[in-house]
Amino acid sequence: MSTPTTQSGLFIGLMSGTSLDGVDGVIAAFPSAPVQHPVATLASAYMPFSASLRAELMALQSAGQDEIEREALVANTLSSHYAACVERLLADAGLRPDQIRAIGVHGQTVRHRPELGFTRQANNPALLAELTGIDVIADFRSRDIAAGGQGAPLVPAFHQAVFADPAQTRVVVNIGGIANISVLYDHETLGHATPGQSRDVIGFDTGPGNVLMDLWIKRHHGKDYDENGLWAASGQPAPALLDAMRKEDYFAVAPPKSTGRDLFHEEWLARHLGSLPQLAAADVQATLALLTATTIADAIAQHAPAAQTVYVCGGGAYNPHLMQQLAQALQQRQLAATVQSTEALGIAPNHVEAVAFAWLALRFDQRLPGNLPLVTGARGLRILGALYPA
Ligand SMILES: Nc1ncnc2c1ncn2[C@@H]1O[C@H](COP(=O)(O)OP(=O)(O)O)[C@@H](O)[C@H]1O
Ligand SMILES: [Mg+2]
C-alpha cells in the first residue's frame, strides 16, 4: 500500500496480549489529523514467543518467589524480542529507524488490578529505545487507572476513530485471550439518547476469549490452541457447565469493567468442573467455546440490539467454529447482526490491536487524550503513555 502524502508520520505498534502467544507488530501510516482514516499498514510481523519465554511469562501471572527480579529479567528478554520484531518490520518496509516517529508498545500484562489502583505490564522501554534507536512510548494504562479508570479496554477509542459509521451502529469484538467489545453507535441512536447522557461509543471486556480454551487444550493435548476450533467442534456443549460458568458475577456487572487472567484462570475452571459429574474433555472444550460466544452475544443483545454488523478481530477471528457459535448465539437472541472479520473494514484481524497501539503512540505524540472516560470510567480525558526518547 502506498504511503499517504499528507501524514502525521509513521508509527510502529507492538501488541502482546493475554494469550501469551507472541508479539504482533505493524508499521502504520496515519493521514494528518483530524482525519485518521484510512490507516495504511506498511508492514506487519508476528513473532511467536519461545517456549521458555512463554513459560516464564505464564509463571509470573500468579504470585511466586522472587517475582520482582524475575519480572525485570523477563522484561529484558521481552524487549529484545520486541526489538527483533521492529528490525523485521523495518527490513520488510525498507525503512530506516529515523523514518519512524515512535514505537507504541503495550508490554505484557502480569497484573491488572484497577480496583487496587495499579496495572503492571512487563516491559523495558528504555532497553527497546536503546536497541532500536527509535522513541518508545509505553505504559498506556497507568494514567487512566490513576484517574480512577479501569485502564482498559483502550482500543475502543481507536475503533471509534477508524471504524465508526454515522449511518449505522457497528460492533467491534476483539477476541484475544480476553474478549472485549466496542459499540460504535450511529447518529440516529444518539439523537434518541437522553440529553446529556448521549455517548457515541461504549466498550468493555465481556470475559474470556480464547484463554480458557487455550489452557484446556494445552492440558489435554499439549497444543497452544485449538486450531480452527476442530476439537471444540468435535464435542457436545454441557448445559450444566455452561450455566454454572455463566453465573460468574463478572458477567452481570455493568460496564465500565475489565478483566484478565487474574479472574479467568485454571482454578476458576477447575472450581466449576469440580462441582459437576465428570465430563469428556472435548465436551468441556465445546462448552468453553460456547461460553465465549454467548457472553459476547449477551453483551451485544444488551448494548447494541440494533447493530447491523459485528466485526471480529483478534486471534478468535481465525477460529471458524467460534465464529459460527457467535453467529448462532446472535440469532438465538433475535439479533439481525451478521458476523464478519475486520478485514471487511480494511484491517486484518490480527493487526487491529497493534495498529491501535501505533495510534495511541500518535495520540501521545500529538499530546491528545487516548482514553474514553465513558469506557474506562476515568474522571476525564487523559494523555496516555510515557516517552523514552531514542
Ligand atoms: N486458526 C486458529 N484457530 C483457533 N484459534 C486461533 C487461531 N489463530 C489464533 N487463534 C487464537 O487466538 C489466540 C491469539 O489471539 P491474539 O489476538 O493474539 O490474543 P492476545 O491479544 O490475547 O495475544 C491464540 O492463542 C488462539 O487461541
Ligand atoms: Mg497475541
SSE arrangement:
Blueprint: E1 7-15, E2 22-31, E3 40-48, H1 51-59, H2 67-93, E4 100-105, E5 108-113, E6 118-122, H3 125-132, E7 136-138, H4 142-146, H5 155-163, E8 170-175, E9 178-184, H6 187-191, E10 201-208, H7 211-221, H8 230-234, H9 239-246, H10 249-252, H11 266-274, H12 281-303, E11 309-313, H13 320-332, E12 338-341, H14 352-365, H15 373-376, E13 386-388
Parallel strand pairs: 1-4, 4-7, 8-11, 11-12
Antiparallel strand pairs: 1-2, 2-3, 5-6, 7-13, 8-9, 9-10
Bound molecules: adenosine-5'-diphosphate (ADP) and magnesium ion.
Q: What would your notes on this structure say?
A:
- The protein has 390 residues and is of the alpha/beta class.
- It folds into two domains: 7-151 and 349-388, ATPase, nucleotide binding domain (Nucleotidyltransferase, domain 5); 155-345, Nucleotidyltransferase, domain 5, CATH 3.30.420.
- It has 15 helices and 13 strands.
- It has a six-stranded mixed β-sheet.
- The longest helix has 27 residues, at 67-93.
- Mean pLDDT is 93; it is low at 1-6 and 192-198.
- The structure holds adenosine-5'-diphosphate (ADP) and magnesium ion.
